[in-house]
Amino acid sequence: MSAAETRTARAEATRAVIVDTALRMFREQGYEATTMRAIAREAGVATGNAYYYFGSKEELIQEFYTRNHAAHLAASRPVLDSETDLAARLRGVLRALVDINVPYHGFAAKLYSRAAEPSSPLSPFSPESSPTRDAAIALYAEVVDGAHLRVPAAVRERLPELLWLYSMGIVLFWVYDQSPGTERTYRLVDSTVPLAVRLIRLSRLRALGAVTRQVIAIVDDVRG
Amino acid sequence: MSAAETRTARAEATRAVIVDTALRMFREQGYEATTMRAIAREAGVATGNAYYYFGSKEELIQEFYTRNHAAHLAASRPVLDSETDLAARLRGVLRALVDINVPYHGFAAKLYSRAAEPSSPLSPFSPESSPTRDAAIALYAEVVDGAHLRVPAAVRERLPELLWLYSMGIVLFWVYDQSPGTERTYRLVDSTVPLAVRLIRLSRLRALGAVTRQVIAIVDDVRG
DNA sequence: AGGCAGACTTGAACATGTTCAAGAAATGCC
DNA sequence: GGCATTTCTTGAACATGTTCAAGTCTGCCT
To answer: Is there a contact between B143 and B86 (Cβ–Cβ < 8 Å)?
Structure first.
């Protein structure tokens, strides 16, 4: 129904205005300094109305994650479409991840620290984050699939998830990185990617079969 | 002055009562469910009085860390005094770390997630945490020093800090570990310690000198 | 048209972390 | 002992996240 659609569209617009306002204010003034009252006021709605669309202030962050991942995906496209070397692909995707986050450094830190709580829906391991997480892992699957790489199937299978975990480590470092332009994080990416790729390639060696199997066993145990 | 001491002692006692009450209530009911008003009431002081001793609710957590480290130190003593094998020492100290934390699993998660925020004084990298951090690193220095281990000086120097970082990773995993008795974390310790020690020992090999130097360069860059 | 159901909106009310001006208690000094 | 200073102690007041009962609007049905 066009009428129903109009109606829904209106509400959808209100929702969008609230998100836009909130994320802009978070970026400009920080997470804590931005009150729900201020968000509602600037968005032109009543305080309580924001709670009709978002169960809590934290839920607004989930929205940030979603947009963030979309931006990461877009920023990764060029390198994924042009490079075939694993190191180059991985490096490009990780640098893209930092790139799109840089404008949010400082306030992103607060957001991500909220995500550190295991019981929080914002946790990257929570069921609520499952779609975003799966999408992110799929991105690293593409990193691997588009590269020329000869490794045991057991390794290849687990690689996307491992690389995603690796990217989480980079983000964790980035959160703490106070260097100008977070250049240290960029250097960390540049210096660890070759090591990681070398390590992955080593899994081909017969002599290291025992170690490889051991590592895989640990990974599987950890995944539960 | 006995009078002055009495006075100070009284205040010190009040402070202690507040901490004890707070930590007990945190353990019994969780961090969020425990209000400052409730803590003050049970401790027998006015709400505002708690703020005379602790600038914020979070500051009470710092106290938890301090006690926690003391407990870790005590729990590590036996293995440090009896074992000389690096793997055994490291394993013992890491298991001790999990041991003493286990009773607090669930509420410790909230505490540690607060610590994830870089600007927070609770962050393990913050100036405020410096004493606790240094003490913890000193513990891992003892782990290394008491073991028979032949590795390059450059590696040995950086080992305590690296092992501390490793222990932080274990704690991070533990926080997310929902297995009964957090047995998965114990398994992670048992399975990764031999790998870590093997890796450390590999640094002796001439053939890996280039890699070792590269890793050390990264570590130094990261430390800033 | 009248009115009904559901989707949306509102602003006051509530709980909790935190601050603060005022007061009480203890200490030091004569 | 009496006064000035410092060290606590108090409870009300404030800001903010969140809830909720009540109201408004929209589209649909008869």
So the answer is: yes
